[in-house]
Every structure is written in C-alpha cells, then in structure tokens.
Amino acid sequence: MGTVVLVSPAAQVRAGEPAPAEDFVEACSNGIAVADPEENPRLVHDCAVLLEIRDTLLDFPSYDGPGPLRWASNSPIRNWRGVGTACCPYRVTRIVLDKAMIGTTIASTPTGTRRLIPVGSIPGEIALLDGLETLLLSGLGLEGSIPPEIGELTNLRTLILSANRLTGSIPSSMGRLANLREMNLSLNRLSGEIPPELGSLRDLQDLRLHWNEVEGEIPVELAGLRVHTLWLHGNRLSGQIPAGLGRSGMKWLRVGDNRFSGCVPPHLRDVLHNDLDNLNLPNCPEPAESGKGAERGATTPEHFVEACSNGIAVADPEENPGLVQDCAILLSARDVLVGDAPSLHYGALPYDGDEIGNLRWDVEQPMDQWPGVGVSRLEPRRVTSLRLSAFILSGEIPPVLGSLSALEFLNLSREYVISGLTGLTGEIPPEIGALTRLRTLSLRRNSLAGEIPPELGNLVDLQWLDLRRNELTGELPADLGNLVDLRSLHLASNNLTGEFPSEMGRLTRLRTLSLFGNSFEGCLPSVLH
Description:
This protein is an alpha/beta fold. The chain has five helices and 27 strands. The longest helix has 18 residues, at 321-338.
C-alpha cells in the first residue's frame, strides 16, 4: 500500500487517489451528515463526493432555491433522497433516483408560480463512489454522454440509466464492470456500435439496449454471455446475427426493428420469448454451425450420414438429426486422427485389457458405446465430449471436428509415450475456434507445429486450455485475451516467442499459468503476477 495522507481530520484516502474538494469533506465531517466521522472516513469521502456532484447530476436552472435532490450536510446521509448505505465499513452502496421519486416542484416567482424542470448529466466524478453496487438514474431527462469513468465502478451489480436523453457511444470501459448482473441503457439516444468489451461481463444476466440509435453488427463476443434477457430491438443494427448467441439458457430475446440480413440461427427459435418472426429472415441451415469448416473440406460425406441413419448408431435418427450429423463427422475424422498408428493392445501400455485398436467407432454399435465419445442424455442429443488421450493417434487434427457444434470437452492429448510414435502432427486447425461451447481444450504432449490460431479467442466459455509440450512457434495471438473465463492456461515447452500480449491482462480469473520452455520477452500484465 502506498503512503497514507490526510485529506481532513476525518477522512483518509490513499496517496494519488482522486478526492472530492476539501470544503465538501469538511462539511461532511460535522457529525451530522456522518455520525462519528473519524470512525467512518470512507463514508465522509462518499458524502463529500455526493455534495460535489449534486448540482451537476440534477438541478433546477435559473432558480436560487433548493435543488431537486436536497442532499445537504445538515441532514444525516441515510435520509438523503435515493441514497443507500451499508457496512462494514460504512459506504454509499446505492443511488436510486427516478422520475417518480423526484416528483414535481412548484416554485413561487415574482410573476406567479411555475413548474420547475430539473436538468442534469452524469458527472465523471461519480466514479469516486467506488463502493456503489446499484446505480439507477431513470426517467430524469439526463443529457450528455455516459462518462467512461463509470467503468471504474467495479463493485456495480446493477446499472440502469434508462429513459433519459443520453447521447454518444456506449463506453468500452463498461467491459471492466466484472460484477455487473443487470445493464439497462434503453430509451436514450445512444449511437455508435456495441462495444465488444461487453462480452467480458461474465456475470451479466440482463442486458437491455433497446430503443436507441446503436448501429453496426452484434459483436460476436456477446455470444459468450450467459444472459437470460437480451433486448436490442429498436436500433439500427445490421449484418448477421452471431451463430453462438443465446446458447446459455436465454429466456427473453428481442431484436426486431433493426436492419439485420442473412439468416437466423435456428436454435434462437427455441428461446421462450422472442420476436424473431418480425425479422422476416429464414433460418440458417444446420451445417452453418460448423463455422469455417466448410471452407476447408469440413463437409460431411453423404455416405457417412446414410450409415449413421441405420437406427443402431443413432436411435430414432429422424428425431435426432444433430446426433446423426455428429456421428458422420466422427466417422469422417477417424482415419485422419489415427494416421499410420499401428493397432496395439493395452498390454503394450501400463495396464492390461482388450485391444485398443484404431478408434473402434462402428455404426453397428450405439454411439453411447463408442470409446472416448460422450453423448448428452437430454434432448436434443449431441456429442458433447471427446476424450481420446488414452488412444494411439499419429495423424492430424481434422478440421471437420470444428463442426461438432455442441462439443464442450475436447481432449486429444497423448497420455502414453510409445517408441517411434510422435502423437498428432500438423497445425491446430482454425476451425477449432468454431466450437464456442468448449470448456476444456487439451492438446498436450503431441508434435503440433505452426502458430496458435487466433480463432481460439472465439472460445469464450473455455476454462482450461492446455497446449504444452508441442512444437508451436510464433507469438501468442492477442485474441486469447477474449478468454475471460479461463482458469488454467498451459503453454510450457513449446517454441513460442515475442512479448506477452497486454490483452491477456483481461484474464482475471486465471489461477494456473505455465510458460517455461519458451522465449517470451518483456513483462507479464500485472494482473497475472
């Protein structure tokens, strides 16, 4: 901790920390606004901030009487309109002000009586209230822009600035509000694009940006949000709706009255409350979920689809078209994965058992019994995991695996070292970046070469990434900074070079990081130390 300096006899702040004006600090140290000011220096600080921003936030122009907020040092802060405090230590944790709370003020003037209309804006100094958990300023007619300093309120859980006259763009700094659960900026005049940084708000449950003038495409980063409510209607949004949007229990989706083109990801039709019929757009075909796979021959040969529709590999194939597709993908990937590996027995390995073979995936057996393959039990049934580390794989990673759109766990690591076998070779295909539901990706102890594809930055649900003990080269892609839910990152024993990207500083949930055996330069972002 840095040097401690006295701001007043009652309030202490850290050296270099922004502070309210001294006269407001003294006013809040009178023993009335804040009881026991010497015991509650942070509440004195918050009190002073509120007095400093009061008239900017809301005031009656051309009127000498009391303003609409009536925050004053001769009244206990706990009685101030719309202000809530909590301990311990005592801080201002809540500001809740709306049109009904402010009410109507009638003032007497030399020419009669008149109704006073409050005006105001959101001051950047509001960021000094760093204990705020709720900020609701709704229906107040606030003007101006949302200050970027609002991104410093990292304890915020609720942010509602709806039904004002706010203009300008949505600050990208809002992506730092890591504890935010509800954001409502609706019914304003906001413009510009939706900042992709909002995709970093992993705790966000309710996002409402409707009835503004926001334009551009929906950032693909928003597909990683686990929101139950997403209201974007009544804007100027365009382009294609991201394929990964709404895959995490969404219940409310409103995107009408925009300018979208292309097609609608079919799974969005399953959202309980949606307005997709207003778009007049067709459903995207199911193969579109494979992302870039189709560009590099990741399409599934028809004969594999027919083989998987035999009623054995997949029961009720007509009721489970997604699982039939997954079955065909695995059959087409099997020989590419195995390569020229010989058929071995478990007796050649550290334990006994039956023949290990070359991935015995056979359409004459139900997929539930295919070794290393995990199939969901709930409808719609899909392949959700591939755990192949105990198998002998000497081929390459097939790009077609990027079409397993429901996959959550992919382990192609090499668990056993066999003389003369090097594990998987070639490069990591960028199509793996289409597996947006992945939580674990492990490719450890193979002979993979080339650079880490930046498309891995699309795996926004990923919690475990293990690429150690390969032959990877080049610099780390800055896109990996999008993996804000990552807990473990293993890159040791490769040939990686260059500086560690500053974007990796967004990985605030990272608990394990292994980098040795590379040639990185410079310093790690401070949050990773």
